[in-house]
Amino acid sequence: MEPIKINIIAILIAVVVNFILGWLWYTPLFGKLWGREMGYDMNEKPASSELMKGMVFMIIGNFLFAWVLAHNMAAWSFVPGTNENIATTNAIMAAVFTWLGFYFPGDLGSTSWEKKSWTLFFINTGYHLVSLLVVALIISYWPA
User: Fold this and answer.
1) In three state form, how does the secondary structure of the chain look?
2) 137, part of any domain
3) Is the model's pLDDT at 39 over the cut of 90?
4) Residue 52 domain-assigned?
5) Total domain count for the chain?
């Protein structure tokens, strides 16, 4: 069995890009709408220690996200015919199927069971899909 090869530089780039994407998505693009749907007082600023803690956990989460997705994508490279696809096709397939199988159902469940709004559902699940696409594209274009 061949070892799975992972490009740690691609993962680190994906972590940074995904962090920036999260900031863009939940601040200038949908921040006010997301905050309102979450029931936050948008005039109240969190403590800097709370922000730092959130950023550290976000970076750790982004690393695990990119690292596991890279392993998943590398494992699929052993399927006959997969290497004949262009990198974009493999990235889109990895992102969409991961989103459809793991993120979308969880987002649906939290919307239904936690009585969250459909607006919040579309903001969150949209971020999950875009994030997966961006990270999968980075990983697929910088293979090990």
Assistant:
1) CCCCCCCHHHHHHHHHHHHHHHHHHHHHHCHHHHHHHHCCCCCCCCCHHHHHHHHHHHHHHHHHHHHHHHHHHHHHCCCCCHHHCCHHHHHHHHHHHHHHHHHHHHHHHHHHHCCCCHHHHHHHHHHHHHHHHHHHHHHHHCCC
2) yes
3) yes
4) yes
5) 1
Identify which of 106, 104, 125 has the alpha carbon closest to the alpha carbon of residue 114: 106
pTM score of the predicted model: 0.91
Query: Over the Cα atoms of the chain, what is R_g?
Result: 17
Domain that holds residue 16: 8-141
Q: What is the mean pLDDT of residues 54-58?
A: 95
Q: Yes or no: say if 135 and 69 are a contact pair by the CB < 8 Å rule.
A: yes
6-10, 15-19, 72-76, 122-126: range with lowest mean pLDDT = 72-76
Examine residue 3 and state whether it is found in any structural domain, yes or no: no
Share of the chain above pLDDT 70, in %: 99
Q: What's the rounded mean pLDDT across residues 66-79?
A: 90
Residue 1 forms part of a structural domain: no
